[in-house]
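Below is one protein, fold included:
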Amino acid sequence: MSEKHLKEKKVTGFNILENECIWMKSGLVSFKRCENAYDCNSCQFDKAMTAAIQSKKNVEETRQSFREAAKANSFMERQCRHMLSGRVAIKRCANDFRCDVCEFDQFLEDEDARHALGKVPIVQVDGFLYSDSYYYHQGHTWARVEYGGRVRVGVDDFAMKLLGRPNGWNLPHLGNRVSPEEPGFSLKRDDNDARVFAPLEGIVVAVNREVMEKPALPHHDPYQSGWLFLLEPLKLKKGLEGLAFGEQGHAWLHHEFETLQQLIMPGHGAMAATGAPLVDDIFAAAPEVGWKKLVKTFLHTD
């Protein structure tokens, strides 16, 4: 993670093109960037502004909330939160800005739960696919922060090349709570199982049914169609603090590659010759290392 990113402690959302806070968009504050992936419900700035208004402190400075200001406008001027943030081109609010009971807001969330939208930028680090738009847990799971603060979860390309094509997944059920403190799901390959950590704490709100029908999908496409489940995070910013991102993720993945090299050499020499692609099933290529050792070393579970 870059020094600037650490200093700001901002949440980097995937494919979120706008970054102006709703309060700024509404003209109620002169300057404020959104640092919470437009998740107003858990935003400390939004809570502080609303509390100041309700307690009648700093009234001249804060005036009224963007919700109250918008309600005073005509219907055609009542821009929906999703329109203000650039998520949709045109949408007027007819619900007094009660996003928690809004059918349109729920529709967008349901659509997001079903489809992993957006093109994923991919680079290679020592032959492994990597996305700078994702956060990474040391157990090789990824977290993709999406609009509204929800988090999509999957397993990275390193783990999929390490263990090969899975035959099945044991994913958490809807409503289950997962945590990076204990394994939250598992994958199966023939007679071998690997328990896996979720990258951060949250409640499961959607599961990728296509992966249940096609268990090898994450091996072929780990960062898009091979996603596993969607989380409503409990403490988004705090949860992301322990994950690798951007340049820090590059360095971490390079270190993992070096560890893997040391583990399988000298029996197999270099993992890949210059210009040659990495094998996509390291376990099958070096069975003498053992499934359990690979899982314990890189996924950090038994």
